[in-house]
C-alpha cells in the first residue's frame, strides 16, 4: 500500500512491539472471548490478539492490505479475516473490541461502537479526538460525539503513544483508552443523527429545537452546549418514531 492510500484511509501502522504488548495486556483477554478488530493493517496486532482470544474477526477494507494480511495470518484457525466495512452492519456479536482506529474514521467508528453490545474495548485514537470525546459541558471540544461516548461508556485514559511509534509518521500524538459500556440502552442510528443535528446549533438556546424536538421548559433557556449528555439524548430521542 502506498503512503497516499494509507492517508486516504487515515491509516498509520503501529510498529513498536512494546506498544502492541501494552495494548494486548490492557485488553485482559483470557482465551474465551470473541474479539472484533477494525483495521487489520499488517496484521501484527491481529496475530497477538489471536494468541489470547477464542475467536477474532478482523476487518480490512483495503484489498491490497487484506491480501497481504491473508498470506501472513492465513494459518490462524481462530481468525476470520474480512475484506468489508463492518460499519455497514448495525449490529455485531463480539465480547471485546480492540483497534488502532484509522484517524479519518474515528467519529463514525465510535458512533457505530455506541450501538453495539459488548464487554469492553481498547482503542487507540488521535489524542485530539480522544480529548474531544471526553470534553465537558461548555468546553470548546464538547460535541455530539462527546455526548454519544459519555452517554454510552465509562472512559479511562490508559497511556499516550508517540507519533514515532507509527509508519508513516503522523503529525499528531495518540492515546489508548479503555471503554466500558454503561448500563444504559444502546443508542440507535436515528438518535445519533439527531444529536449531530442538534449540535449544528450548539451555541443557541435549546428553545430553538422545539420545532422538531420535545424540549422541557426547564432547559429551553439553556444553551445547547451547556446541556449534559442525558438531557441531550432525551431530546434527540423525542423525535424518533
Structural notes for this entry:
33% of the residues lie in helices and 20% in strands. With 241 residues, it is an alpha/beta fold. The chain folds into 2 domains: 3-181, Rossmann fold (3-Layer(aba) Sandwich); 189-237. The strands form 2 sheets. The protein has a 7-stranded mixed β-sheet. It has a two-stranded antiparallel ribbon with strand order 1-8. Helix 7 packs across helix 8 (189-198). The longest helix is centred in the N-terminal third of the chain and has 11 residues, at 17-27. The N and C termini lie far apart (44 Å).
List the helices and strands and how they pair.
Blueprint: H1 3-9, E1 13-14, H2 17-27, E2 34-38, H3 44-50, E3 55-59, H4 63-73, E4 79-82, E5 96-100, H5 106-113, E6 120-126, H6 127-133, H7 144-152, E7 153-161, E8 166-167, E9 174-181, H8 189-198, H9 229-237
Parallel strand pairs: 2-3, 2-5, 3-4, 5-6
Antiparallel strand pairs: 1-8, 6-9, 7-9
Helix pairs in contact: 7-8, 7-9, 8-9
What is the compact description of this entry?
The protein is of the alpha/beta class and about 240 residues long. It contains nine helices and nine strands.
Strand order of the main beta sheet, please?
A: 4-3-2-5-6-9-7
- Total beta-strand segments: 9
CATH superfamily caption of the largest domain:
Vaccinia Virus protein VP39
Q: What fraction of residues sit in β-strands?
A: 15-25%
Tally of DSSP helical segments: 9
Helix content percent band: 25-40%
CATH architecture of the largest domain: 3-Layer(aba) Sandwich
What's the average pLDDT? 93
- How would you spell out the order of helices and strands? HEHEHEHEEHEHHEEEHH
Structural class: alpha/beta
CA-atom Rg in angstroms: 19 Å
Oligomer: single chain
* Uncertain segments: 1-10
Task: Assign the CATH class of the largest domain.
Answer: Alpha Beta
The fold-level CATH name of the largest domain is: Rossmann fold
Overall shape: it is elongated
Q: Distance between termini? A: 44 Å
In the residues, how many domains can be counted? 2
Biggest sheet record: 7 strands, mixed
Amino acid at each position: 500500500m502506498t503512503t497516499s492510500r494509507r492517508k486516504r484511509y487515515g491509516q498509520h501502522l503501529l510498529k513498536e512491539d512494546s506498544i502492541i504488548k501494552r495494548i494486548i495486556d490492557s485488553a485482559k483477554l483470557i482465551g474465551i472471548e470473541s474479539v472484533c478488530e477494525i483495521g487489520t493493517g499488517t496484521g501484527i496486532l491481529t496475530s497477538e490478539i489471536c494468541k489470547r482470544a477464542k475467536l477474532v474477526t478482523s476487518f480490512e477494507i483495503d484489498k491490497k492490505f487484506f491480501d497481504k494480511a491473508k498470506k501472513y495470518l492465513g494459518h490462524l484457525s481462530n481468525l476470520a479475516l474480512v475484506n468489508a466495512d463492518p460499519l455497514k452492519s448495525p449490529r455485531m456479536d463480539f465480547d471485546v473490541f480492540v483497534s488502532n482506529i484509522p484517524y479519518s474514521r474515528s467519529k463514525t467508528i465510535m458512533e457505530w461502537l455506541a450501538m453495539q453490545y459488548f464487554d469492553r474495548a481498547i482503542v487507540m485514537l488521535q489524542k485530539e479526538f480522544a480529548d474531544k470525546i471526553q470534553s465537558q459541558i461548555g468546553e470548546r471540544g464538547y460535541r455530539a460525539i462527546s455526548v454519544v461516548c459519555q452517554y454510552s461508556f465509562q472512559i479511562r485514559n490508559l497511556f499516550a503513544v508517540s507519533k514515532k511509534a507509527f509508519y508513516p509518521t503522523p503529525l499528531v500524538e495518540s492515546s489508548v483508552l479503555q471503554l466500558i459500556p454503561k448500563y444504559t440502552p444502546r443508542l440507535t442510528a436515528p438518535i445519533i443523527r439527531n444529536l449531530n443535528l442538534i449540535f449544528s446549533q450548539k451555541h443557541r438556546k435549546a428553545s430553538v429545537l422545539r420545532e422538531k424536538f420535545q424540549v422541557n421548559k426547564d432547559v429551553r433557556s439553556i444553551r445547547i452546549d451547556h446541556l449534559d449528555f442525558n438531557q441531550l439524548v432525551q431530546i434527540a430521542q423525542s423525535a424518533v418514531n
